[in-house]
Amino acid sequence: MEETTREASSRRTFWLVLSVATALRMLLAAVVPLSGDEAYYWDCSRHPDWSYFDQPPLVIWAMIPFRLLLGETSLAIRMPAIIASLGLGLSLPPLARRLGGGYREATHAYLWMCTMPLFLAGSFYASTDIAMIAFYVATTYSAVALAQGERRAWWGFGLALGLASLAKFPGVLALSAIFPALLNPTVRRQLATPTPWLAAVVALAVTLPVWIWGAQHGWDNFYFQLEGRQQIGEFGVKHLAEFVIANMLLASPVLFVAMALAWRRGLVRKDAGWKALAVAAACPFVFFGVVSLRTEVGGHWGAPGLVLGATLFALTPYTRSRQALAYISGAFGGLVTAFALIVLIFPVALFEADWTRAPWFGRIRAEVLNPLVGNTAAVREIERRRRPDELVASESYTNVHLFAFLAERQQLSLVLADINDGEHGLASLYWHTPDEFEGRDVLFVTRNPWLRIEQLAPYFAHVEEVAPIEIRRDGELVRYLRLFRGTDLRHTTPAFSRLDRRGS
C-alpha cells in the first residue's frame, strides 16, 4: 500500500510539472517576438509543398492547422514546438519504467531538461529541432523495448525513426539505438522475419515527401545537406572544442559533466536496453564531433544527446551530491534563460535604460537590441516608400520573412534575392517561376553597408540607390536600412527563382 501511495504521489507530481511547464511555454510563445528563422518557417507554411530546400516538412506542415485555428500569431506558429515538448515529456514515464524507474525518475528527467538553457528556450521556439528530439526519444524508447524482447516495438521504431527524419535530417542518427538492441540474440533472430524489414519500409514511406521534392528539384535538398551546408577545411580540433564548450553551456557545465558520467554507467550495464539508451545519447556527440574535426558544426546539434543524457542521469541512484547538482544546474539554466527572455520581451526598455554603470552591456547593446527594436516601424516605412505594383526584395532571408510576417495584414509582398550565394533560407526560390518576376520593378532593402550598385545592376535595366530608412528612438539611430530601386527585372534565375518556366 505504501508503494502504491508513493507511486500515485509521483504520478500527480509528474502531471503537475508537465502541465505547469506547458502552460508557461504557451504564455511565453504568445508574448516573445518571433525570430527571423521562425518567420521563415511560417512563410514556408504559407506555401505548402512536399518538402523544402533546407528543411523536411513535418514542423512546417504542423503549423498550418494552428494558423487556421489561432490566426497569424506567434502562438500558432510555435504550437508544434509546444506539442512536441509535451510529447517528449509524455514519453519519459514509459522509458523510465523500462529501465527500472517510474514517474519519480521521469519527473526528475524532465526537471533536469528544464534546467538546460537549450531546452528551456527551445521547448517553445518554432524550430525543427524540438520535434526531431521528441521523435528521437520515441525511437530510443522503441529500441529499449526491442532490446528487452518486445517484438512489436519494431513498428514503433520504424515509425518514430521516419518521423524524426521528417522533422530534421539528423533524426536519422536515432538509428544508432538499434545496434545495442541487436546484442540480444532474440532480436538478431527476428532479422530473419519480415517484421524488421517491413518496419524499415514504414520509416522510408514516412520520409517519402523529402524524396519526392528532391526528385522534382534535381536533389537540391540532399546536395545542400551533404555539400552546401558546410565548408570542409583542414583537420583540426578548434571546432571540436567549440562544439564541446557550446554543449556544456547549453546544458550547464556541471550537469554536462554529470551526464557524461551517467553515459559511461549506461554503457557498462549488462542490460541491452541501457546500452541502447546510452548509445543513442552519445551518437550525436560522436558523429558531429568527428565532423567538427574538418568543419564548423552547430552547437545545438548535440541536443538529442543532452536530453537523453538527462534521462540517464535521472535514472542513476539518488544522492545528496545529485541534489546539489540540481540546485547548481537549475540556478545556471534559470539565470541564463531569464536574461535571454528579458532581452526578447523588453528590448525597448533595455535599450532606453542608462547603462553607464554597466558598460559591458552598453557595448553590446547595439548588436543585441537594435535588431529587436524598430522592426514594425521599418515595415511601415517600407510600405510607405513602395510604389504601386513594386516588389520588395532583400538578400537577407530573415528580413524577407520577418518583415512579411509583421506586414501580413498589409499584404506587403517581399521576395528573396540570393545575390550573395547564400546557403540557408533559400526555400522561397522554389515558390515562384521566372515569369512572375520578369519585367517587375523592385525596391531592394538591405542592412549590408558594403552592397554596391554593381552587384544589382546585372539583374535590372536600371538601378539607383535612394534615401535610406532611419529608425530613431529619442534621437538615437537604432535601425538603418539602405534602399535601392531597380526597374525592369530582366535576369531572375537563379537569384530570384531556381525554377524553370514550367515550375520544375
Describe the structure.
A five-stranded mixed β-sheet has the order 2-1-3-5-4, with helices on one face. The protein is globular, with a radius of gyration of 25 Å. It has 504 residues and is of the alpha/beta class. The protein is 60% helix and 8% strand. α22 links the parallel β1 (391-394) and β2 (414-416). The protein has helices spanning 2-31, 36-45, 58-70, 74-98, 103-114, 117-122, 128-147, 153-167, 178-181, 185-190, 194-206, 208-216, 220-228, 238-251, 253-268, 272-291, 303-314, 320-345, 347-352, 359-369, 375-385, 397-406, 453-456, and strands at residues 391-394, 414-416, 442-446, 460-473, 476-489. It has two domains: 2-340, no CATH class; 374-489, no CATH class.
Order of helices and strands: HHHHHHHHHHHHHHHHHHHHHEHEEHEE
Low-confidence stretches: none
Radius of gyration: 25 Å
Helix count from the secondary structure assignment: 23
Q: Give the tally of structural domains.
A: 2
Give the overall shape. globular
**Amino-to-carboxy terminus distance:** 67 Å
Which structural class should the secondary elements be placed in? alpha/beta
Main beta sheet: 5 strands, mixed
Mean pLDDT: 86
Question: Would you count the extended β strands for me?
Answer: 5
Record the strand order, biggest sheet.
Answer: 2-1-3-5-4
Q: Portion of residues in helices?
A: 55-70%
What is the strand content? Answer: 5-15%
Question: Layout of SSEs?
Answer:
Blueprint: H1 2-31, H2 36-45, H3 58-70, H4 74-98, H5 103-114, H6 117-122, H7 128-147, H8 153-167, H9 178-181, H10 185-190, H11 194-206, H12 208-216, H13 220-228, H14 238-251, H15 253-268, H16 272-291, H17 303-314, H18 320-345, H19 347-352, H20 359-369, H21 375-385, E1 391-394, H22 397-406, E2 414-416, E3 442-446, H23 453-456, E4 460-473, E5 476-489
Parallel strand pairs: 1-2, 1-3
Antiparallel strand pairs: 3-5, 4-5
Helix pairs in contact: 1-4, 1-5, 2-3, 2-22, 3-4, 4-5, 4-7, 5-17, 7-8, 7-16, 7-17, 8-11, 14-15, 15-16, 15-17, 15-18, 16-17
